[in-house]
Amino acid sequence: MIFAPALNTNTLKIAVNTRFLLPGQLEGFGWYTHEIVSRMVKNHPEDQFFFFFDRPYDSSFVYGQNVTPMVLFPPARHPFLFDWWFEWSVPRALKRCGADVFFSPDSMCSLRADIPTVMTCHDLVPLHFPEQVERRHRAYLQRKLPLWFERANHLLTVSEFVKNDMVTTCGIAPEKITAVYNGYRDAFLPLSAAQIGEVRSRYSSGQPYFFYAGAIHPRKNIHRLIEAFDQFRLVTGARCKLLLAGRFAWQTGEIRQAWENARFRDDIVFPGYVGVEELPLLTGAAIASTYVSLSEGFGLPLAEAMACDVPVITSEASCLPEVAGGAALLVNPFDTASITEGLKNIYASEELRNSLVARGRVRRKEFSWEKAAEVVWEVVCMVDRV
Questions:
Q1: Which domain holds residue 102?
Q2: Are 280 and 304 in contact (CB under 8 A)?
Q3: Cis status of the peptide bond prior to 126, with omega within 30 of 0
Q4: Confidence label for 3 from pLDDT (cuts 50, 70 and 90)
């Protein structure tokens, strides 16, 4: 449930943690930060924004004249440097710019900041799936998350599933948490038959393909998707490919092994990280979007596929059934045979594909970055008055 506090008509000085606004490398936290904060800046020119980067920034992320970018030392990608950045550099910068409120969109915040703080928590993966977190970050995040939750004046999250998880797992009062869905970018649109043919000619030798977009990471269940696709090809003989778009993260040995063992590995394509121009095209030309992750806070590729009139196969785990809202084919992510069956059913049935697309057109109306950005701004205004 989303509350709508009365709007603050006073000018605010809002400091924002923008560490993940990295040119050419926007992924989960980065896209969320970009989509939310760019709209806050443009929709509220009366407010002043101070962007805290941890390395030299790209001017494209300075969204308006009401933004003052600041680079705070050190570049923070290690627990020791996290503490240095959040507990020393950020508090000093907050005082220097006279900020009224601090917004941190990447599941971390400053314990020493002495002004109202709003933090977005995207999921509780470090608590539920610690083995899926890099070893150097694991213990740090497990220890710090409860402290950050307690310190923040208000918490945002991206689905009711995660909100309920935070209440149940961490004992947080539900009134301290606001859930608001992510949106999808305007570039995600249905493609014409000619456009689909062009994209397939360029990326899949003209053949239809199943598509995955995201980090190549164990939590995303890529190894089972590869195994399921290989079995799908074996039992159906379908001339079809699997495209897995994203950067290789850590601990990918199981994924590489699955690919090496696949009979049809030549039809499993890794195009690498796909930029903002190509991703909507690759999504829109797919026969289906496949997102069988083991745990997610939201699952943005579902919304993006729905926006492109592309059917979705996704997990019956974590938040994904909530986000799918009846507009996706659900499979058991721990059962390769279940994923294979999903691929077979989607490929074989035009009626099923059309039904999922029709339901996706209704469901996608719930996903709006404009709505999400306004709710975040309202929460920021609310904590400034507390």
A1: 13-183+368-385
A2: yes
A3: no
A4: very low
Kindly give, in sequence order, each residue whose CB lies less than 8 Å from that of residue 201, ignoring residues fewer than 6 positions away.
Answer: none
Claim to verify: residue 93 and residue 122 sit in the same structural domain: yes
For residue 63, give Cα distances in angstroms to 2, 13, 37, 41, 60.
Answer: 27, 15, 9, 7, 7
Buried b (16+ CB within 10 A) or exposed e, 275-298: eeeebbbbbbbbbbbbbbbbbbbb
Tokens (6 digits) for 311: 């059917």
CA angle 217, 219, 224 (to 5 degrees): 85
Give the integer Cα–Cα distance in Å for 256 and 350.
Answer: 32
214 shares a domain with 159: no
Q: Are residues 140 and 200 in the same domain?
A: no
Average pLDDT over residues 145-149: 97
Residue with tokens 């701004």: 377
Q: Which pTM was predicted?
A: 0.92
